[in-house]
Amino acid sequence: MKTQSKLYVYLTISAILLLIIAVWSLNTGVYDFAGKSAFEVLGKVIKDNPGLSLSDQYVVWDVRAARIIMAILIGSMLAVSGTSLQGLFKNPLATGDLIGLTSGATLLAAITIVLGGHFRQYLPEAVQFSLVGIAAFAGSLLSMLLVYKISTSGGKTNVVMMLLSGVAITAIGFSITGFLIYISKDEQLRDLTLWNLGSLAAATWMKNIILGIVLIISYIILLPKGKALNAMMLGEKDAQHLGINVEALKKQIIIITALMIGSCVAFSGTIGFVGLIVPYILRLLFKSDYAFILPLSAICGSILLLTADTFSRSIVEPSELPVGILTALMGGPIFIAILIKFKKSLS
C-alpha cells in the first residue's frame, strides 16, 4: 500500500507539471489575441461566448488546443510502447524506432500516400478514411513480427540480432521510401517530407478522438502488466514459475505496441527516441520497477513531447521546426550513454 501511495504521489506531481506545460504551450505562438491570454480565449470558447472573433476561436481551439492534446496522446503512447518493449526484451535499446517498427509503419503509410490513389476508390468508404492509419499499423505489426522471428531462437531473444534486424528493416524502409519520394507529385512530396521529419502541425480533433480510443484500449491491457514485466526480468522460465503466461504476454505487448506506434506514425509521422528517453530517465530514478515506470512513462512521455513541440514552434518563429528533429537531438546523446553503460557492463 505504501508503494502504491508513492506511485500516486509521483503521478499527481507529473500530472500537475503536464498541466503547467500545457498552459504555457497554449500561450506560446506568434498570433496576437489583442491583449488577452490564450487561456482566457479558450475559456470563452468552451463557454460558447459569441463575442469572440472567428480567428481567435480557430487559433486557440482548432490549432493550439488540438495540437496540445495530440502531443499529450502521442508522447504518452510512444513512451509506454518503448517501456513495454524494453521490459519484454529486457534491454534498454528495444524501442519502436530502433528495432524497425517506426520504419515499417512509415513505409506502408508512404506507399499508401503515393500509390493509394490507384486502389482507394475500390475500398469501402470507412476504410478509405482511415487507410493511412491501417497501413501504418500493418507496417508496424509486420516489422515487429519479422524482428521477433529473426532474433528469437529456442524461446530466447538475442538482443544483438534484434537490433541488427531492426537496422536492416530501417535501411530497407528508408530506401523504398526514398524511391517513393523520387516518384511522388508535389503535394505527395510535401506530405512525405513532413512524415519523415515528424510534426504535429496537422492535428485535428477527429484524429485526437481516434488516438484517444487507441490509447484507452491499449492502456487497459498494458498498464496492469508492470508486475508481469518485473517477473520477466528474472527470465522467462522463472516468470512462468511465478504464474505468468509468457507467450500470451509477448503477443499482447507486440500487438498493442504495434497498434500504438502505427497510430502515432499515421497522424504525426516519424517522431523518434521518445520511447528511449523517458524509460531511461525513469530507470535512473526507480531502477527497473515496471510497476512504477510503466504508468509514470504514460505522463512523462506527454511532458517530453509537449515540451519539445512547444519549443519546436517557438525557436524559429514564425516558422516551426519539425518536432522529430528535436527529439532526435535529445535522444542521440542518451542512446550513446546507454551504449557506453552497456560496454562497461560487458567488461
UniProtKB/TrEMBL annotation:
<feature type="transmembrane region" description="Helical">
    <location>
        <begin position="323"/>
        <end position="342"/>
    </location>
</feature>
<dbReference type="GO" id="GO:0022857">
    <property type="term" value="F:transmembrane transporter activity"/>
</dbReference>
<dbReference type="InterPro" id="IPR037294">
    <property type="entry name" value="ABC_BtuC-like"/>
</dbReference>
<keyword id="KW-1003">Cell membrane</keyword>
<comment type="similarity">
    <text>Belongs to the binding-protein-dependent transport system permease family. FecCD subfamily.</text>
</comment>
<feature type="transmembrane region" description="Helical">
    <location>
        <begin position="290"/>
        <end position="311"/>
    </location>
</feature>
<keyword id="KW-0813">Transport</keyword>
<keyword id="KW-0472">Membrane</keyword>
<dbReference type="GO" id="GO:0005886">
    <property type="term" value="C:plasma membrane"/>
</dbReference>
<dbReference type="Pfam" id="PF01032">
    <property type="entry name" value="FecCD"/>
</dbReference>
<feature type="transmembrane region" description="Helical">
    <location>
        <begin position="203"/>
        <end position="223"/>
    </location>
</feature>
<feature type="transmembrane region" description="Helical">
    <location>
        <begin position="160"/>
        <end position="183"/>
    </location>
</feature>
<feature type="transmembrane region" description="Helical">
    <location>
        <begin position="68"/>
        <end position="89"/>
    </location>
</feature>
<feature type="transmembrane region" description="Helical">
    <location>
        <begin position="98"/>
        <end position="120"/>
    </location>
</feature>
<keyword id="KW-1133">Transmembrane helix</keyword>
<keyword id="KW-0812">Transmembrane</keyword>
<protein>
    <submittedName>
        <fullName>Iron ABC transporter permease</fullName>
    </submittedName>
</protein>
<dbReference type="InterPro" id="IPR000522">
    <property type="entry name" value="ABC_transptr_permease_BtuC"/>
</dbReference>
<feature type="transmembrane region" description="Helical">
    <location>
        <begin position="253"/>
        <end position="278"/>
    </location>
</feature>
<feature type="transmembrane region" description="Helical">
    <location>
        <begin position="7"/>
        <end position="26"/>
    </location>
</feature>
<feature type="transmembrane region" description="Helical">
    <location>
        <begin position="126"/>
        <end position="148"/>
    </location>
</feature>
<dbReference type="GO" id="GO:0033214">
    <property type="term" value="P:siderophore-iron import into cell"/>
</dbReference>
